[in-house]
Amino acid sequence: MVLPQAGAVPVGERQVLQISSVLGDVSVKVSDPSVVDAVVDQTARTLTLTGKAPGATVVTVGDARGLTRDVPVRVAFLAGTIAPSAVLRLTGDPASADYVKMQAVALAKKLAQARPGAQIVATVDQLTYAGSLAQDDVVTIDVPVLIQGLGFFEADGSTRVRVENVAAPRIAPATLMVSDYPERLEANGVLFTADLARETPSRFLYFHFNPAGQPDRRIVLRAENTSPEPAIVQFISGPGGPGANEMEVGHDATKRFLVRVVQNEGSLIAIPGNASVDLVEDAVPAGAVVANLLQLRVLSGGGVHLTLFAQNATSDPDESLASTELLEGTYKHARGIYDIPEFHDARAWSVADPYLELSVGQIPLPNRIKGEALSGDYGVLQSFVVNVMNPYSTPQSIAIYENPRGGRATGTYLIDGVLIQSHQVPAYSRYKIRQYVVPAKGFVRVTIVTMPEGGSFYPLKLIFAPDDGSVAPGAPGSPVY
Predict the structure, then answer these.
(1) Which of 61, 100, 386, 412 keeps 20 to 30 A from 316, CA to CA?
(2) For residue range 171-187, what is the model confidence (pLDDT) as tens digits?
(3) From edge to edge, which strands make up the β-sheet containing 356-360?
């Protein structure tokens, strides 16, 4: 008897089978010695198989009585290799459990190496970590990783990720960089390039569409350290897509970015001197849109040069660029650097006064370099503080309404620290996004943080007005959730 009854041996590795119920010396014969080697230990009664090349064969085991047993053996490559350990340095005040798990899984997948045609599987659903990670705290998370593919043996293991939350100041961007041209990708090449100086943190928005009929692509954001000393880049990323619905993609990117920028949830990437690191690698299948909102700063070291480029999905993300010329397109969209990444506005409004209207995405921004102005203020963070006063001797019900003015639009708002979202609504419609009761002779202080969303048509107005009795946010019939 041979256990197990069949052999499965990765190329270059060994498998030991147990032999029992035999008499005298054990003999072994391999039908195809080019596939596997087989060696018997007469004392231990074991059969050691060593994989040589992919294939299938039969190993015949016999004893002194002439009894034999055929053992089928399959030899194949492992689908890939899994990194045993890794170190993840991130920021967050604090870093939420969801963010910590998401980043740990992303790093484990990035470090895993799959053979062509194999797939890496790792999800946050398998992680049990709960609770936020405070600044200067450390946690170790085991991330299960599976690599599988047709014709390969599965690689099944885990990467032990040490997560360090490094206390880092919040990024106050001095400029806004935008890459929305060419919006339609009909060739590979450079989409945007700029220097990121240590004294000039920046926000970066990109939004690109890979039309149907084009090859599946990847968009890569590369950071090149142009000095001989090491550099550390701190960045926050709010990705959206890939997806076929451009409004949904822009909405998801804005939502993730606003939540993370408020929490200061980001990553710290070390770049050796005169070397480069790919900060982002976004898959963009044909017919899909991808967007991202980032906030970047050189925390230490010299200058860093940023390059955003498109390549075929089958290409190596680390490949050198054939040309540094910027891609051009037929329809002009924004591509450039803008000097106003944020608007801040403080107002006082009495419920006895006419409606208060706050404009979002109203003022086109001039381009610092040659190119289109930024209409709609996409990527510009806009925050409002409104003191709502009630001069009456009875409580007053008021509401905040969203009112798109440029076309159909989605919306994301952090109102008094609460995430409020809106599905797409038609131009000139009016829906409640928040309700308040202002006490008699009292006031309510309202804080709003929002941003025009890629794929939507801005400007949009936020209107403070008496409650008109229309459908409440989150109720049936409301697009707000």
Answers:
(1) 100
(2) 999 999 999 999 999 99
(3) 356-360, 460-466, 396-404, 431-438
